[in-house]
Amino acid sequence: MSCFARKELSKILHSIFTDYLPQIFAAGFKYTITLAIISFILGLIIALVTALVRISDKGGGFLIIKAIFRFYVWLFRSTPLLVQLFIVYFGLPYLKIPGLLPNGIKLAPFTAGIITFSLNTGAYASETIRAAIQSVPREQWEAAASIGMNRGKTLRRIILPQALKVSIPPLSNSFIGLVKDTSLAASITIVEMFEVSQQIAAENYQPLIMYSLVALVYALFCSVLSWLQGWLEKASSRHSKESEAEA
Amino acid sequence: MKITKVNKTFGNHQVLKNISLDFPAGKTTVLVGPSGSGKSTILRSLDLLERPESGNFDLDELHIDFSQKIKDADILTVRKKTGMVFQSYNLFPHFTVLQNVTEGPVQVLGKKKADAEAEAKQLLAKVGLADKADFYPETLSGGQAQRVAIARSLAMHPEYILLDEPTSALDPELEMEVLKVLLELAKEKQSLVIVTHNLAFARRVADKIVFVENGEILYDGDAGKFFAQDNDNQRIQDFLNSMSLASLD
Ligand SMILES: Nc1ncnc2c1ncn2[C@@H]1O[C@H](COP(=O)(O)OP(=O)(O)OP(=O)(O)O)[C@@H](O)[C@H]1O
Ligand SMILES: [Mg+2]
Asked: Where is the ABC transmembrane type-1 domain (chain A) (predicted)?
């Protein structure tokens, strides 16, 4: 009897290392990581633009643009990510406008995922970046103004470098959150690693093992990111250390 | 450089009351007066960091009417011709000392980086900080930081350097480092406008004294007369006594 159990165990272990983990990792690199990285980069670009629009002091017609961006941030922060994914993937095909969009908007699952994750990340990260920009003392703007720098150059050369340094920890958190949130992409038919573990569990009747395995891989990915965050933080505050060493 | 009939209000508090002043080129003008009298507001108006509601500003051929919208090109001209040194230094923390000094010349004046660096090194030597070029601001003492700020301002070759209580954040010992640099600049006929509470220094450096109280100019003229003990203006006499000038003699 115990001999049978041991055989069973070694069989499972064998499958874990030669079959399950390779499949999970393959899906992880093909979908989880790519979805997360592409969406995060696009999200950061959206966030930066949004933050800059929202802190701008331009008036007139620009107020309408500001209102649109404010609405966007409100919308994506006040609705669940899963619902957003469903609307973009399952809902938009029914957005039929005669003459303009007779067939609705049909997106490939991966495209729908990228769009939703980018917009969602952009909404949250824009608030992070906006707060970071506003945390840079007003005197930095004045010092730059006093040597004749205009607003754009002051932002680019003086304010953003200081703001981005402050943003590294919260943005890293967003990125780690995004990696985990990509598991929701399973619900719009993307075969990312959580979906793969579900499919295998349905075949081998080992849900505990399969979901624990995929959890482990998520934890591994996120740990690598945490480590990267620590490295980035150190690199960005390098100036104090270096000159102390010289002194 | 001069301002005429300048009015500035914060909320419903009129901080500058129709004041007119001129700042002779090549001279040192020192603004003194009690706290909250409007000295900083005057100084900041000269660099357009503060915008009065009305009045005129003249600097060489440039004329600005504060009641009109100021053209970007005029703002740039003023900012190139005047440089501000702040009480809290306001160096750029993510740049080295050298980069702090070259930033304006390279980014605003379009100077070549190598030329800007060569000049920045001379300026740092002039303020006694040649060895700090590659340090970051947070490793400097207050006196060193303020001297870098002065070098940063000098690098733009401004006609006027405006200094708002440049040494109030410093210990007396560090204060002397900065005051020496300013005395040196005054001797070289660099036009200076200085707000200070240090009357001993004011007396030493000023060609012209402006006494501000409650948004009005109570004295505008020769420095020597201002400090003369027989000054007939009771308010000024009270102010000088309150700052216990006697103890400095
Ligand atoms: N941004 C602002 N908003 C509202 N009130 C202001 C502002 N800046 C200055 N004031 C007010 O204007 C008045 C003059 O201020 P200012 O800073 O010019 O005085 P000061 O003479 O430089 O004083 P101190 O010697 O304390 O620096 C003060 O009553 C101050 O409270
Ligand atoms: Mg002041």
From this structure: 29-226
State how many domains chain B has: 1
Whole-number mean pLDDT of chain B?
Answer: 93
What are the angstrom distances between the C-alpha of A153 and each of A53, A93, B87, B91, B112? 16, 43, 24, 16, 17
B55: left (phi over 0), alpha (psi -120 to 50) or beta: left
Residue A178 lies in a domain: yes
How much is the ipTM here? 0.93
- Evaluate if residue A242 carries a pLDDT over 60: no
Residue in chain B closest to A236 (alpha carbons) equals: B94
CA distance B237 to B249: 16
Domain of A212: which CATH number?
1.10.3720.10
Domain that holds residue A46: 19-237
- Residue B38's pLDDT is what? 96
E runs forming strands in chain A: none
Cα–Cα distance for residue pair A199/B73, rounded to 1 Å: 66
Which residue's C-alpha comes closest to atom 18 of ligand 1?
B38
Instruction: Tell me whether A2 touches chain B (CB under 8 Å).
Output: no
d(CA B93, CA A140): 9
| For range A14-33, the mean pLDDT | 95
pLDDT tens figures, A164-202: 999 999 999 999 999 999 999 999 999 999 999 999 999
Per-residue pLDDT for A93 more than 90?
yes
Q: Which of A142, A239, A243 sits opposite B90 (nearest CB)?
A: A142
- Domain count for chain A, please give it: 1
For residue B139, give the nearest of A149, A153, A244 by CB distance: A244
Residues of A in contact with B94 (CB under 8 A): 161-162, 165, 239
Ligand 1 and B215: CB distance under 6 A: no
